[in-house]
Amino acid sequence: MLRRILLLITDLQLGGTPTVVRELASRLNFPPDVSVDVACLSQRGAVADQLESRHVRVFPLNARGPADLSAIMRLAHLFRREQYDTVFSFLVHANVSAALLKPFFPNTRFLQSIQTTQPYPAWHWKAQSVAQHAADAIVVPSQSVALAAVERSHVPPDKIAIISNAIDPADFSDLATDPSREQLYNSRPVPIGFIGRLDPVKRIPDLVEAVASLDGLVHLHIFGDGPQRPHVERQIATLRIPHRITMHGSVAHPHDALRRIALLVLPSEAEGFGLVLIEAMASGIPVVATDAPGIRNVATHNSTALLVPVADPHALAGAIRQILGDASLRSRLTATAQSDVNRKFTWPAVLPRYRQLLGLPEID
């Protein structure tokens, strides 16, 4: 009997959760036994093209905003036409949209995923507290997200499944074995990087302030885009350090950014997981990050990364300087981090959990 599964997400722009959906869909999609489609509430994004290149069908619903009922009607029509036995939604807008349709599809199993610990906007958590009643299970990538779901959305703990996000280390093996990487640490300035959405929760201004205090030791490459970009650009101009920071915008693949940096910095105040952390670790790139929810479930201080307090540019600068000045520390952190990723955060380790949740047979 053919299993018909739909993965529903808010958008398919470049980012952590769309990447998880892309990898999950392509790794589960094995007709004639399992057929997986992906729908997004918004218009097409770059990840839609990546999915279709992997022979996964994509259905953009072209919503004009969160309250666009016509997109919900199009989603209902898709449900009816394709006769999915399981709908697995990701992020609050998709979770709410799927929950609205559950009463009309009593024979469909509904799963949801929460991927953030970000406390605001608070209405997201209130909406999720209502939507969660329509789900048979809630998937989260870390213990921090599980705690947030229980505390803010009143999700019953026994409804939560913690399944880590994952990567394929082979995708980063060329970076991990690149002999030229060590030369970057001997250059001045040393190229360091941030990769992610330019959102207030990422606290990029803390990193910009840290770079300003490092007296030309580093050049910061910022890869990503988002609503905080104008603020960051103004801060760079105010501090008079445009020669020390380059803003590249979004990149199609993390390789494009990771191959250019000697150190990754993630200064967020909250993460659901931080996929970029394990991508950097798999690439043999040392990490400085904050001891924030989500991050602390992925990286361990002085073992796989250096973690500093949130909102402390001085501590960020100190950790950056410490790693760049200590080759033995870099070697120890990256070796332990690669081992940790291979053991806990790869698809062979994670995919069986998804297959079990979805009721799919084990693969030998």
Q: Which shape, going by the Cα principal axes? A: globular
Tally of separate helices: 15
- Percent of residues in β-strands: 15-25%
Main CATH class of the largest domain: Alpha Beta
| CATH architecture title of the largest domain | 3-Layer(aba) Sandwich
Low-confidence stretches: none
Describe the structure.
With 364 residues, the chain is α/β, with parallel strands linked by helices. The protein has two domains: 3-166 and 346-358, Rossmann fold (3-Layer(aba) Sandwich); 169-344, Rossmann fold, CATH 3.40.50. Helices cover 41% and strands 17% of the residues. The strands form two sheets. The protein has a seven-stranded parallel sheet, with helices on both faces. Strands 10-9-8-11-12-13 form a six-stranded parallel sheet, with helices on both faces. Strand 1, helix 1 (16-28) and strand 2 (34-40) form a beta-alpha-beta unit. Helix 1 packs parallel to helix 2 (46-53), helix 4 runs parallel beside helix 5 and helix 9 crosses helix 13. The longest helix is centred in the last third of the chain and has 18 residues, at 327-344. It starts with a strand and ends in a 6-residue tail after the last helix.
